[in-house]
Batch of 2 targets.
Target 1
Amino acid sequence: MEFFQALNVQGRVISALTLRETRSRYGNSRLGFFWALFEPFAHVVVFIGIFSALGRASPIGESMGLFILTGIVPWLLYSNIVGKVMAGLAANKALLGYPQVMPIDITISRVILEVATLILVMLFFLGLAVYSGVTIRIDSFLQMMSAAGLIILLATGIGLINAAIIPHYPSYQNIYSAFSRPLYFISGVFFTADFLSPEAYAMVQYNPLIHLVEWFRSGFYTSFNSNLYEPNYAISVCLGVFIVGLIAERKSSKRARQI
Amino acid sequence: MIEFRNVRKTYDIKGGKNIILDDVSFKFPENKNIGVLGVNGAGKSTLLRLIAGSEYPDKGKILRKGKYSWPLGFSGSFHGNLSGIENLRFACRIYGADIKYVTEFVKDFSELGKYIEEPIKTYSSGMKSRLAFALSMAIDFDVYLVDEIMGVGDQGFQKKCHSAFAAKRETSSVIMVSHSMKTIRDYSDVAILLTGNGLEIHEDVDHAIELYNGLTS
């Protein structure tokens, strides 16, 4: 009984927080959701430009745009969630004055909004592709979802770990962003692992994100099956990071409530 | 009902710890209006936040039954970037209160006018306390936890608060922190003195105020 009551309260808190996040992100300016569409659009346009200047065709399928889209969506899922989870507590500290609002609720609501946003973004661009005459046949929806789910776990875990470290070492934030920037270039957003030289391949294969991007694409394309991704490696890294993140959250949440 | 069992609460300060409560076991008197007295830094606000559940003890347990308000104070639970209305809606959602009713009540009670649509960070402290008061009166609580904001605002608003509390007296009580001895006298049936070693309860509020004056001078 008490458990269900607590669950009910937490449900109310999370939905209230999600609403509040949505409103503050998209409600206050007319351009709101346009910006969510603009970022992936810009990536796609830039890479179409680069690839056509080099005279290269899409690594998979006919459509270059679709290829970049299936890389940029997982990437944004990762990097946006890390950023949002990391900054979540600082942005909502005042609301912790309400006893029923838990720090983890803030994280959950931010992840929900980010996932919902990217689903809409993905659907919008797929719709656009179909409208402009590209045929889309999704190979395995389940595989795409598995990869996306693991990205969510990984990103949430890293976000929580960062959020726990930053109050102790504020300069860590700069260190983190310096190290995470190159990640974009080694995560297979605009290439597949098959194109890499053996040396490069040996290096990037430990990056869990490239596994997940390739997994996501393997689910999307019937004509593509990645040789790189190993479900066992990706799953254990993501789960491990997520669990460490939850422990870090537990340890730091008591302190988070203090004014 | 609120009971502290072996509660310890400390704050990290430069070069050590500020101990606010050390292994305190204490049962708060029920259905009584309680004024909390203590010198600056003794931990009055922390005590309220512990009672509310906004902050957790380092050690020990806090048992509570009934519906406690969030600590109504200047620092409050309001989000600076959100408007008064948005903050109000948020509170309604997490307490499961009726948004329409609460909005009407708060608009009428708080006298904030069109400011209710403005972000909280533009509010004066008086306006914040008016909003906090109005909102907490609209959501029914068994115990109101009031941190310093009683006795703010003009005479008219003070009267309004007084009569709103008087109307709730049958069903609710208040635990309050204030630097104004007049406010403490006006509202409290009993006083709790934070001595630095623990909590002392005094049935005689005037006597507690005398002891408190002894501590401060």
Target 2
Amino acid sequence: MRIFDPHIHMTSRTTDDYEAMHAAGVRALVEPAFWLGQPRTSVGSFTDYFDALVGWERFRAAQFGIAHHCTIALNPKEANDPRCAEVLDVLPRYLAKDGVVAVGEVGFDSMTVEEEKAFVRQLELAVEFGLPAMVHTPHRDKEQGTRRTLELVADSGLAPGMVVVDHLNEVTVDQVDEAGCWMGFSIYPDTKMDEHRMVAILQRRGLDRVLVNSAADWGRSDPLKTAKTGAAMLAAGFTEDDVDRVLWRNPVEFFGQSGRLLLPDSVDGEDTSSPTDAAATFEGNSILRGSRD
Amino acid sequence: MTVVVAPLADHSDIEAALDEGARERWQAIRTEVADDPSRLGRVFPASARTTGRGPLPGRDDVLLEDAVRVDLVSLVARRVEPDALLDELRQVYRYGDSDEKRAVLHALNGIEHAEAGQLDGTDLLLDALRTNDTRLVGAAMGPHSDRLDADAWRQGVLKCLFTGVPVSAVTGLAERADQELAEMVQRYRREREAAGRDVPPDVQAVLDACAAADPKD
């Protein structure tokens, strides 16, 4: 089982996790920029964090045979602090980089005016840089937050296929599906989704435009939930090809739209190229393919 | 008076590694920075995906993306004063990912014909040596490390041993190795031995270089 975890915060995880993830089949991941638990109070604190996402964490993952990508954004929670709002001005530097495969996490936390302003601005940046957007949906009043999210996406000019709306559940999945956006599901030990409810959603609506992630971070979470969802899919009668589609080909297709993936040529003997990815290359690999601007 | 930044690879070797489309895009970004050196900050980050990446055929020690980026810097170097070039390199390094930072270090290593004290990127080398990213540590100990003072240079050599960067990456080992470095490396060896760990072969290589050097006061 080859796995691409499309949402995991490795900065908060240990090398034991990297080892266990590799053993379970994880060969690539996306680490979205997010809130670190302790609120930041300055722009410098953000830029050091972004530098780590395109620097140290990428190096650390490579030591364990995992291709590390990230998304960059001002997260919804900290968009409410005027001391942090100026981080919007430094985002373009990072959005130009290899391995930065989306703008995110953007979206709503408490549905404030400030959050909406930052969200709209960052959807504009996604259009400007030709990047997908990863949208976080709120823990509280998720249904209303998801509805407003989809209105803003529709107004942004960003194609629905360039947007993943994340942390969905049984209550919010259908409106995102109908909007044509990608659907992200975070499989957690206690909250959000679990693997069996995930399987039930896949059985009901199919595998199309679905991303399954562990969203593991500094809270109680499990970086192997992607693999466990794959096992639950197999136990429920899905084929290995179905699992490969959900856990590998779907995230490669979605993030490949950025043209910024840094994947090895092949993983466990399987070609990793994607019809949407113009630049699937990997540092240290022998391929010398060029791509678009 | 401008300085020269030596390319990492011959123009023809880079060209041969690119397909036709990538070759055209390479020429386009070369023209872009040659016409307007201030475009370096925009072109440099995107240049790997614009052209290509990976080992340069026939050159085990050179990556295509590094060669392309150093070439861009060399074009800028011909057109701006050394101080302006260093300012530009500091900006690119500050906001660079690890690949971009490494390419900046390679560009510093390629500086030729600089007068004493001119274009001193010591601050960038020290930043790279504070990381544990072996690709940055190795690049920081290249030819530009002749600007490092003796203490920083010895610590750099020790860091190479500690992090597994081959000391063949260290420029000027034979000339700068001294008794103080030998003592540092011997203490490192004793620590490894006391812990029952292997001593990397490069430890002996550094000690040999120190022994061959003239005794210093």
